[in-house]
Specification:
The complex is a heterotrimer of chains A (about 270), B (about 600) and C (about 325). Chain A is about 40% helix and about 20% strand. With about 270 residues, chain A is of the alpha+beta class. Chain B folds into 3 domains: about 30-305, Cytochrome C Oxidase, Chain A, CATH 1.20.210.10; about 320-540, Cytochrome c oxidase-like, subunit I domain (Cytochrome C Oxidase, Chain A, Up-down Bundle), CATH 1.20.210.10; about 540-610, no CATH class. Chain B is globular, with a radius of gyration of 24 Å. Chain C has a two-stranded antiparallel ribbon with strand order 1-2. Chain C is elongated, with a radius of gyration of 30 Å. The termini of chain C are far apart. The chains are: A alpha+beta (about 270), B mainly alpha (about 600), C mainly alpha (about 325). Chains in contact: A-B, B-C. At the A-B interface, helix 1, helix 2, helix 3, strand 7 and strand 9 of A face helix 4, helix 12, helix 13, helix 14 and helix 16 of B. The complex binds heme-A (HEA) (2 copies), dinuclear copper ion and copper (II) ion (CU). Copper (II) ion binds near residues 297, 300 and 347 of chain B.
Amino acid sequence: MNKFWPFFFMFWPFVAVVLFFIAPSMGWWFPSEAFSPLGVQIDNLFYLILVIVSVTFVGTHIGLGYALWKGVDNKAEKGWFSHGSHSLEVLWSIAPAGILMFISLYQLDVWRTYRVKSAYPKDLYGVAEVTARQFEWRIRYPAPGKKLQPTPQPDDLYTVNDLHVPVNQPVLIRLRSMDVQHSFFVPALRVKQDAVPGTVIPVWFEASKEGGFDLTCAELCGWGHYKMRGRVFAERKTEFEKYLNTLKAEQGFDGVNKPSESGAEIAKTE
Amino acid sequence: MSAVHPTVGLSDHGHGHAGHHEIGFVGKYIFSKDHKVIGIQFLITTLLMLMVGGALALGVRFQLAWPWRAMPLVSQLTGGLFAAEGGQISPEFYTMLFTMHASVMIFLVIIPILAGAFGNFLIPLMIGADDMAFPTLNMLSYWFMWPAIACFGMSFTVNGLNAAPANGWTAYPVLSAVVQAAPGAGDAQTWWLFGLTLVGVSSMMGSVNYMTTIINMRAPGMTLFRMPLTIWSMFITAILQAFALPVLTAAGFMLVAERTLGFKFFVPGNLLINDAPATVGGGQPLLWQHLFWFYSHPAVYIMLLPAMGMVSDMLAAQVRKPIFGYKPMVYSMAAIAGLGFIVWGHHMFTSGMNPALGMTFMISTMMIALPSAVKVFNWIGTIWGGKVQFNTVTLNCVAFVSMFIVGGLSGIFMAAVPVDIYFHDTYFIVAHFHYVLFGATLFGCFGAIQFWYPKMFGRMMSERLGKLHFLLSFIGFNGTFFPMHLLGIAGFPRRYADPYIHPYMEHLMPINRFITLCAILMGIAQFILLFNFAFSFFAGKKAGRNPWNANGLEWSAPSPPGHGNFDVPPVCYRGPYEYSSPLSEGTDFLMQTDPLRHTGGVGNAGDGHH
Amino acid sequence: MSHSGTVAAQPPVKMGLAIPNSKLCMWLFLGTEIMFFTAFIGTYLVLRLGSPGWPSDVADTHINVRAGGVNTFVLIFSSYLVVLAHESMLKHQFQKAWKLMCAVLFFGVVFLGIKSMEYKGKFDHDIVPGHIAENDAQALQKLVNEFSKSRDAMTNALITDDPKSEKKLSPAQKLVGLPQLISSESDTTKKDALKALGELRDATAQLKEGVRKDTLVLHTGTDHEVNPDITTKLEKFRTNEHTARYFTAHDPHPMVYGNVFASVYFLMTGFHAIHVIVGMILWIFPILRGAKLDASYTDWVENSGLYWHFVDLVWIFLFPLIYIVEFGSHAV
Ligand code: HEA
Ligand code: HEA
Ligand code: CUA
Ligand SMILES: [Cu+2]
């Protein structure tokens, strides 16, 4: 019974580690692998820190547990009379300092590529302007073949909540907000950026897999914060262009004249 | 230390009151100027507020486990209150729940329980003073809590009974600045800001008082490096309070002016918010975030350092060993406080601030883990080779160390900016801060209540109930908050009333149910604490002056100490951690007041290694 | 003390600094105050440097450098008097100290007087946070609103509700019968007043229409001359003996970032003024002692003096920041 508590304090880190090992197979892990090159780097960084931290966690707890274990049946008349050790202090200041410095410097590159304009990929393609508002994402594409302009153009195309981007192509969105702060979060791509009213924030990402990914809002923006759901579709270049053309036809359709070819389906469903 | 030299005869208070003038009941227990009574008043108030904050948390947990179900009990008990929603938690109300949960927990529980309750009770006793430097100011600092509580309460009632501020405890404008952005919040947000200001005034009065007391009212011989770590931590905390809090107060005034008088600081022009007219002006939303975190990051250390100090004192006494590395412990607390002022930007990595700033904040944040590491290793060093007795105090202290490691280490993930891009505003953050706030600080406080209870009331608390409370709390706590790390990794965002409408989170419902059940267990456990607290007051074993055989000055006073604290004016001859000293024969402790041997430098805890 | 050791080993009686608690506390408190104002000054710098434009033309902002300058000297001088007062207290010349403190209090009043004149100047030109138009469109809209408000006020004053009817009429409803009213009125002054009201109504309607159709421009030509049509209207109703009482429209005056400017101006000077008032309250206590002022107030005077110097010091920072400094490159 004496050893119950030391055991208790050592047992629970063990449970924690085991939980982390089984979690991926239970689905309690990343929603999917990272479908973007930068996302892969973020994941790798996460795993690196996870390893460092787990070693520290288990190490400190073994130390703690061992000290307790020995401490409960310390038969000596008195405890070890020690006020500390200078060399130990130095040791355990320098070792973590080294580790932390390493983590700090190691990650700088990812951060730079993500946020520092001069380090952005060269061939960025400006897809759209995304304007967040309570509680939806408004999207403005330039007309097919045109470049995204800072100010709205007469031939711009508009949708809500569905952002289409070409796959395997670093794309840039201009992120804005019409009312309060929101945050553009695509878990599968590991992108997150707050939309701040009054400023336009460029955000770039590259989807490396075709498919639709959930877009959520990650900054409290009012009662409907939870339901600000959008989707990001990464598609092949041709499909992406087809999508834009469809949009164009749909928006050019005046309800009387025969819609252009690609808009036909939409007209039918109306 | 050159500026600090002993001086004679400047104290505003003489030691050792001769005659005690009679004070009536009200003066003695209600509007008391005695730091001990004020401390106990703070303690009881904060424990009650813990229940309120916890009840709000259980509301949050209920919604996450059983979304949109009628609340059990609550809807019946409150009659028609939630009838409009069919007894459910509406999304607005969910937002209000976590906002008020956090506000109550942080501003009415954690900060006042540390500085207000333990700071008040322990500072004069541990430095050998008869009271605080300014007893009236001290009394006011307690009585300013009540208007604050009333304002927070008002914010629940001004717009009908289920309204409250709905902007998170961080209250980011534009959402919190434009009334129409969060219609339900209305005046409630303004009341909330008043409450915040009042809590601020209360802390402010406390902190200048504590600093003055610690600098100027130490007993003879109590040099700076003979002060217990509790006192050091309270001192450093008071400095943090004094220099960080005014910034929040200032920001609070600005936000109130913006909400009510049409001032423009945070809201940029041309925003179209609900039915409000387009905004004019050119304010900057990020300005609030900078001001808020300039306070609130140091504040998280305000919510931790005193617990660190108290745990150091308790651990040393429980394992019968000097604290390992006293001076490094002091310096690391100072370093945490100093660095704490320059890391606030880590809450804003994804806010769109200048990326170069992001890098600077990232590096300073990493560095703040260093002094924390030193402290952790020193605690383990303190236990190492000691004679461990597993009573409630020890258990809670060890839990403190263990939980702080977990919470601190999860901070490292977020300190790494690229990883924080993913983790920001997910449950990973929620897990992190509950580990440090509840896991570390509150467990520390549970230990401290058990440890100093005999000094407060002259009776011991029940060990049996204490251990039971610890066990249930610990299991409930880890069951609640550990799985939240996994939710965070799964990309589960914070502050979501119904995450399950997003397909990628649907499968996380069972884990949330498990969390809620554990939270209920943890909640039930707190009743044991309350019961133990109240029950032991009448039926606890009588305690002598020094039930733990500890060294501090407070243990040389009667339990409970009378007005003026010490019957014999204490004189301090050594540091507070001389446990198991070879100088002490027959016992394993050597009180700070014990003059019998070697009044010189021997045994000064500041001597570092041996 | 029952268990003291040898006399030589007896530790000193008191630890700490060689200053009284109250003074130490005041210093610490002033430290917190510094952070309080630092937050405001920081806010000011962030907003000003972070804004692409900032109103710096005195004609726009009605910043009165002279008033600010005089106030600076008022405060510095009063701080000097505070030093003298404390010295007198130490020398036990209590009546001299008393007079000096009265003088300090007097200069506090002077400071606040000048300050309120400045504030009045701002209010007269409606330089009030949230009221300032930032571009031409907003300025015109504001003008229309002010015209309508003046018209409504005048309508309500001249045309009383039918006492028999329970229902209160809106100004617009009251105006419906205006022509008949004018023609039926026998009292000539009232008749003229009603006529003037009619003109005001027409002018308001014209402006409104102009704004709605987007034909009204605020400035004509390139020299930023205000549209003469608007100026004549303003002039007319300001000078007309009947309308002047009700007419509250200001010269339309768009000011980019004017609201933020006004906000920080009132924030900083306002909180400073509150501190001056608190300082004055501190002086009132010893002054109220009158002839009974004695050495027990020496510490009080010293600590209040510290506070007063601090308030002075804050002003010395605020004055150049608000009244003088130009951050050149940002002028638009
Ligand atoms: C008591 C409160 C407390 C404490 C002590 C801390 C401590 C730390 N916190 Fe935490 N934090 C909060 C309370 C606290 N935090 C709260 C309330 C929030 C959320 C606010 C909100 O948004 O609502 C938050 C949010 C928060 C964020 C923002 C996340 C986001 O919103 O995106 C970050 C990012 O860097 C962070 C980092 C850290 C770090 C690095 C520490 C460090 O101080 C931890 C240092 C400790 C250790 C590291 C463990 C011990 C060390 C060792 C065992 C040695 C070896 C270690 C290594 C070699 C790695 N915290
Ligand atoms: C010291 C601080 C502290 C403490 C102790 C706690 C304690 C708890 N917290 Fe809290 N929490 C915060 C600080 C704290 N929290 C903060 C700062 C936030 C961020 C808010 C924001 O996003 O703005 C937060 C947010 C937060 C969330 C996230 C909400 C969201 O983002 O959507 C959740 C969700 O599970 C949660 C749960 C809990 C639980 C289950 C407890 C449990 O430990 C509580 C256990 C229960 C009790 C201790 C009381 C038992 C009482 C009863 C059984 C009822 C009896 C009632 C009466 C007598 C009146 N908290
Ligand atoms: Cu939009 Cu949250
Ligand atoms: Cu922080």
